[in-house]
Amino acid sequence: MSSYSTGRRLQTPRTRSGMASHSTNHSQRPPKQRPKTVRKQWSISDFEIGKPLGRGKFGRVYLAREAETKFIVALKVIFKEQIEKYRLHHQLRREMEIQSSLRHPNILRLYGWFHDDERIFLILEYAHGGELYKELRKSGTFSEEQAATYIVSLAQALAYCHEKNVIHRDIKPENLLLDHEGRLKIGDFGWSVQSKSKRHTMCGTLDYLAPEMVENKAHDYAVDNWTLGVLCYEFLYGMPPFEAETQKDTFRRIMKVDLNFPSTTVISTEAKNLISRLLVKDSSKRLSLQKIMDHPWITNNANPKGACWS
Fold this sequence. Notes:
Belongs to the protein kinase superfamily. Ser/Thr protein kinase family. Aurora subfamily. The chain is of the alpha+beta class. The chain contains ten helices and ten strands. About 40% of the residues are buried.
């Protein structure tokens, strides 16, 4: 829920738990100019609100400037009425706690949050380049160099998350943002969970679900590795690999790993090799994140600085 807008694809049914009310005023101040005091009780009056950046089912995102330091942020406004309606208290609290604890160049910072009677406000890092989804829709596909740069950036960010026992579970173009140099940032942690044990909740977005999730089996960090294979395919071919007319057919294709490489698009053998080694039904046999980073297609194509724009 922290990215600039909601996605366009079908979401799997959401099971909710935890009805604890949320009234936290979290106080990490955006960097650049350090505050005189460690903690601050934020309010909307601390910000100058600019243009809208996006809108979704639960609220809107605005460009904003912190009045004292002039630091630019993205201010996500979530309506409490919607949180009540869909019983999202537990998920939102978990998302905020996880994202605010992460520090990685390819993960969007959540600096803090506050609330009033009707709204919850998330103070987010501003990603000047906007949503990766829009870039992909505009161009149709990415070059192998651009795709490799995004995939290795994601692998590095996910390796960091996994070290902290965080499984993301919903990596997709709609949840990815770009900075002013085209560096990728994971911008949404709505389905993430922090756990050392296997999970059983079916969650995420249809086209990106791993077979073990489709089959309602226990899953672990390897679901994120599967998703990188799906994303790599989509970056190069312009569509997810298991896309079908109906949800049932998509599920069937995922469970069978019905993977095809259309001859209409010329893609290198190395790229196909990486995708094929990630889209493996047995989760224990999927390529590890470190092996993704060391794969010849990555080392030969990715920009070491992670930037895709000059």
